[in-house]
Design brief:
heterodimer, A: alpha+beta, seven-stranded mixed sheet, 21 strands, 23% helix, elongated, B: alpha+beta, Nuclear Transport Factor 2, Chain: A, six-stranded mixed sheet, 4 helices, 6 strands, 28% helix, NTF2 (chain B)
């Protein structure tokens, strides 16, 4: 018996009943890391607990065998499902040993060991470095290291810890799950032990999840998990990147990775890039994603690629990919193409893959490929007939949005003047003078959209308590209370609202209707809440306000209905707001003045005491008739209708 | 439209409904209303507004072809700054818009002062919400309507019609 001593190891013996009610002992040596050892007893091969064992007298103290102690092992009978190349490949030197086991068959799976505990996949199992008895056999590396991949079809939704614990609780065989990962909806992990694999397989549908579904498990032999395969180190990755850069044609946005393994640059540096390896493919995709994400053509021919799982990320990482060459690889079925669904390929090469032979004729082949890539125009270098669609195109274009819609220039002037006056008072800090703007029987209500955050804490809090939203407020008394009626109530209410500063330059005005007696328009824009005594935050808000007005006095407007909607401004709106200088009386471009006009302006300003801007406005409105302008000015001044702003120089 | 006082007394109890009936009788007479009348007026307006909004947005989403029936012949629509006027133009315009999914988040209304309408019963309805036009991203919008009571050839009672409609995406400028 061959023994070594490994101080950090623990030996765990498990007595198990296999499915034929025979006992089996498995001893397992475990370490802190996730690698599972077999005890250094060379008879402790993981015997698959298969059917047809034909063993009778087994107990677990069979360590007295000549060959150094079978711990009650047994063969799986004539055939092991899991290790199906063992047929005829058995050196059954122990067949002579135990006459009671007729059909004993010991498929040795001897992972080779290195002191650091990692499995060197390049070594043959039962191979070098492990002295011991017979029973060694040569096997091909691939798939024969005893690794199994456990797949849970809908495992993505499960919490890893919950799932692993649940499985370990019900699985009679102890195992260590290796490299748990999720891909699409599935969860996977590896186990290195055929007994565990078998036991796990039986655990399928034994656990019920929180939704009431039974957890399904599929267990299949597989290549060792990729962590065991060599990863590329940073310097190597850099070389790879350089190598790829050389193979990149910027003019075509094309990358040629044909037979990349034999690239002299890589070979000379002893860097092995084998694209059928998950880590290598991932490294390549990462380099593409980081450096040339707009890649349009990718040639992966001649890289021994047998599955496209690792290439699936290309759909999201290289969304512009239009041409893909997968010829001369080892793709076995067209179902592999499902993993690339979402790629809007126009050109595809698949020739010289085993899958090509699976189709009864060319049209079937084309059809299968086109199912995954409906826009494909070229397959294996041949043009395909263009796909025929259905003309169920429904219009998706919406008319382009425009700015203010006034309807006529007079209306425009009227409204702009009104807004200028209204908001200079509104922003002045005392809204009392607005009484003049409202009709006796005027109505006002405000609305703010519902926010899920605590309304009083948000900036809209000031407005929220007075918000009239019939979708939320159903009580008719409340509804009535929130509608301010008569100008006194209206203005009193407005005066309580936070102090504001409106960006008149940002206003958009849509004229809804106008008749002899009614002018209704909608104004939208942004305003800032002004910080007063450090109480209110300076927040930028957006509003939409409907004014319904009747004509008043001297080409003025009198508000009968006022509905104000306020919301938080978006970042875009905040960015654009208040870019223009502070509001001026004139929103239309100021025409250049002639010399006489200039003179008149100065005189008028002097006489009236108003600043140049307001003086100019007054003169313009009165067609540069000095006397008339003066008359109007005097009259309005007497009526107290000229805001103080006008006199600020 | 006006009703004689006798009819008015009879109809006051009738709950207003959208489609065919508008018992605007209870809203008249058009003299300056005492506050209790204003209260009644305001209450009823709310109910009309709620009903209107249900009908309107359902029509836009599911019966787009019938939408123009809700508008006055000479109604005006300003849609993101585009002015559209008259039944024919409105019909073409609505036809050209992709199919929609509207969701109304806020609703408010006010009875419009008679001085502006010269006695013609008018209602201001203001909404905000989200809309997804097919093939486009979802957007927030603000919309307001002026509804006016009109005689209907299909019924002996007045119906509400949209006299003006103003619609804008909140981010129309982006």
């Amino acid at each position: 018996m061959f023994r070594r001593s490994y101080p950090e190891l623990a030996v765990v013996s498990h007595v198990l009943k296999d499915d034929r009610e025979d006992f089996m002992v498995r001893r397992e040596v475990t370490r802190a890391d996730f690698t599972v050892y077999r005890e250094h007893d060379d008879r402790t091969a993981p015997f698959p607990s298969r059917k047809g064992r034909g063993h009778k007298n087994r107990s677990f103290d069979r360590r007295d065998r000549r060959r150094g102690g079978h711990p009650g092992g047994f063969g799986p009978g004539p055939r092991s499902r899991l290790l199906d190349d063992t047929d005829g490949d058995v050196t059954m030197s122990d067949s002579s040993q135990d006459s009671s086991s007729q059909n004993r068959f010991t498929p040795y799976v001897r992972p080779s060991r290195k002191p650091d505990g990692r499995f060197d996949r390049r070594q043959m199992p039962g191979g070098r470095g492990i002295p011991g008895g017979g029973g060694r056999r040569e096997r091909s590396v691939r798939n024969r290291l005893g690794w199994y991949k456990v797949t849970i079809p809908h495992g993505k939704k499960y919490d890893k810890k919950w799932l692993i614990t649940a499985l370990q609780n019900i699985c009679p065989v102890q195992y260590t799950p290796v490299q748990y990962h999720v891909d699409h909806n599935r969860a996977h992990f590896y186990v290195e032990d055929s007994a565990a694999a078998g036991a796990l397989r039986k655990c399928s549908h034994k656990i019920t999840d929180s939704d009431g579904y039974k957890v399904e498990l599929h267990v299949n032999p597989s290549n060792p998990p990729s962590f065991l395969q060599s990863d590329l180190k940073p310097e190597q990755l850099e070389h790879l990147k350089q190598c790829m850069a050389k193979r990149f044609d910027g003019s075509q946005q094309a990358l040629d990775l044909n037979n990349i393994r034999t690239d002299p640059d890589l070979v000379s540096q002893n860097i092995e890039v084998i694209l059928n390896r998950k880590t290598n493919m991932e490294a390549v995709l990462k380099i593409i994603e980081e450096n040339i994400p707009e890649l349009a053509c990718l040639n992966l021919s001649n890289n021994r690629i047998h599955k496209l799982d690792d290439l699936a990320d290309v759909v999201t990482k290289v969304p512009n990919l239009k041409a893909l060459n997968l010829s001369q690889n080892e793709l076995k079925t067209d179902r592999e193409l499902d993993k690339l669904k979402g790629l809007k390929l126009v050109e595809l090469w698949l020739s010289n893959n085993p899958l090509c032979d699976h189709f009864k004729d060319q049209p079937a082949y084309i059809s299968a490929v086109r199912q995954r890539f409906p826009r494909l125009l070229k397959l294996d270098g041949c043009d395909l007939p263009p796909p025929i669609g259905f003309d169920v195109e429904t219009p998706t274009a919406i008319p382009p949005s425009k700015g203010s819609c006034f309807g006529s220039d007079e209306i425009k002037a009227l409204i702009l003047r009104f807004l200028q006056q209204y908001y200079s008072i509104y922003d002045s800090g005392d809204r009392q003078p607005l009484l003049d703007a409202y009709h006796d029987g005027a109505s006002l209500s405000i609305t703010t959209p519902y926010t899920s955050q605590n309304p009083s804490r948000s900036s809209l809090g000031e407005y929220y308590k007075d918000s009239r939203n019939l979708k939320r407020i159903k009580d008719s008394t409340m509804r009535f209370r929130l509608l301010k009626h008569t100008r006194l109530n209206v203005v009193a209410f407005l005066n309580e609202l936070p102090k504001t500063q409106h960006d008149i330059a940002s206003f958009t005005v849509d004229v809804n209707t106008y008749t002899n007696t009614l002018l209704s328009f909608t104004v939208s824009g942004v305003f800032k809440e002004v910080v007063v005594d450090g109480k209110s935050r300076e927040s930028t808000m957006a509003f939409s306000r409907v004014f319904i007005t009747v004509p008043a006095g001297n080409s003025g407007l009198c508000i009968v209905n006022d509905q104000l909607f306020i919301r938080m401004a978006t970042t875009e709106e905040i960015r654009k707001a208040f870019v223009a200088p502070a509001p001026t009386p004139s929103s239309s471009p100021v025409p250049t003045l002639t010399a006489p006009q200039q003179e008149m302006l100065t005189a008028f300003s002097l006489k009236s005491g108003m600043n140049l801007e307001w003086s100019q406005k007054c003169l313009q409105d009165n067609e540069w008739d000095f006397n008339r302008a003066a008359q109007i000015f005097t009259q309005l001044k007497a009526e107290g209708k000229i805001p103080d702003v006008a006199f600020i120089k | 439209m006006s009703a004689c006082p006798a009819e008015q007394a009879q109809c006051r109890a009738v709950l207003p409904s959208w489609n065919k009936h508008s018992s605007f009788h209870s809203i008249l007479p058009p003299r300056p209303a005492a506050s209790s009348d204003f209260r009644t007026h305001a209450d009823q307006s709310c109910r009309y507004a709620e009903e209107f909004v249900n009908i309107y947005y359902d029509c836009v989403d599911k019966k787009r072809r019938n939408l123009t029936r809700l508008y006055l012949d000479k109604a005006t629509l300003v849609w993101n700054g585009n002015a559209v006027s008259g039944q024919d133009a409105l019909g073409e315009f609505f036809e050209s818009l992709p199919s929609s999914e509207f969701q109304v988040l806020t609703l408010d209304c006010q009875p419009v002062h008679e001085q502006a309408t010269q006695g013609q019963t008018t209602l201001l309805v203001v909404t905000c919400g989200m809309v997804k036009f097919e093939g486009n991203k979802q957007r927030f919008f603000n919309q307001n309507f002026l509804l006016t009571a009109q005689a209907s050839p299909n019924s002996d009672q007045p119906v509400w019609k949209i006299a003006s409609d103003c619609f804008r995406f909140q981010d129309w400028n982006n």
